[in-house]
């Protein structure tokens, strides 16, 4: 009888209609507070009747003196429970990284909703370029352009000392660092010799 009670497998189930699946998490500093943002998959965008009109994602944000307070305020503003097990991207602001990321990362790692295999090996810098005002709103106009007025651009790899961001490596410096540390992935090198370009893997 005791074995039957211990074999129960549905105690931690999450119904799809009760959860909001988060794909990305962003953490920023706003004055003396943390600002916690999540990008949620919009279930209406998967519907056959509303898929063409509905935005594929919805963004929620909340502030708090601590990350825990910001997350709780965020949860109280939503009708569904945020489900963090499908996080693919973690965005930390440059200001937060310069102050130190150990507390933020420690908080995320202690939450059992985050997957244990979610990790960041190479912190990558991303810039928002273009007309940022035209990239905000409640419709899909920005993503319907062949060349959108606002977009993301690779900036380089961040250099950390302990838990603080101290500088950036550009693309060439990042490739050189990867080769030196034996973490380079297959790509082509190019150099100019006299009037010719030479490429080799």
From TrEMBL:
Pfam families cross-referenced by the UniProt entry: Spore_GerAC_N
Biological-process GO terms, alphabetical: spore germination
Ranges for domain Spore germination protein N-terminal: 13-117
Gene Ontology cellular-component annotations: membrane
InterPro entries reported for this sequence: GerAC_N, Spore_GerAC-like
Protein name (record): Spore germination protein N-terminal domain-containing protein
